[in-house]
Automatic annotation (TrEMBL):
Organism: Caenorhabditis nigoni
DUF38 domain boundaries: 11-121
GO annotation, biological process: innate immune response
InterPro entries assigned to the protein according to its UniProt record, in alphabetical order: DUF38/FTH_CAE_spp, FB224
Name of the protein this chain belongs to: DUF38 domain-containing protein
Amino acid sequence: MPALDDLLPAPFHVKSVKLYAFNMNQVFPFLSALNPGELESINLEAIEALSRDQISRILETEQFKQAKHVQWKIGLNENDLLKFSHLESFKCDLTYLEPVDFQRVREIISTFEVLESCELIFYGDFDRFCIRIVARALEAEIPFGPLKTIKHLYQIPESNEYLEFEIVDDEYYCTMKIRKIR
């Protein structure tokens, strides 16, 4: 993108950025112009669905690897979460294209040493998706009756730390808020 090279001849020194684009390929030149050592917070959103190559490319940038906080409106899968272990907080959507193994998500997140909190959004099959499915998968106690929220405390194996889950039914999707208790 030659016009961008003329416009941005030197790296930007910013702590936080929000990049919103029609196509994620439009974001890469801007993201790469940001100084990774100073960029702490990244918020990315694209109108077009991302390809696996684009997601991998973002996860491999130094800007992402050195960030502390990330917010993505991008459909990630469980394996993508493995790359989030360095983050203090993150908020992202998980893909609706394949089933989610909620126990695996919990196992992955429980290994994140610096994590303070995260929020995962799951879109499901509207006829059958509800917080009970998530709660059952996490082996949470499920109260009787209609539910909008379920809370669950999970002790991290071989640790005195816990993950506090708040699973919220947001009608067309489910939000899982996770906070680490030290």
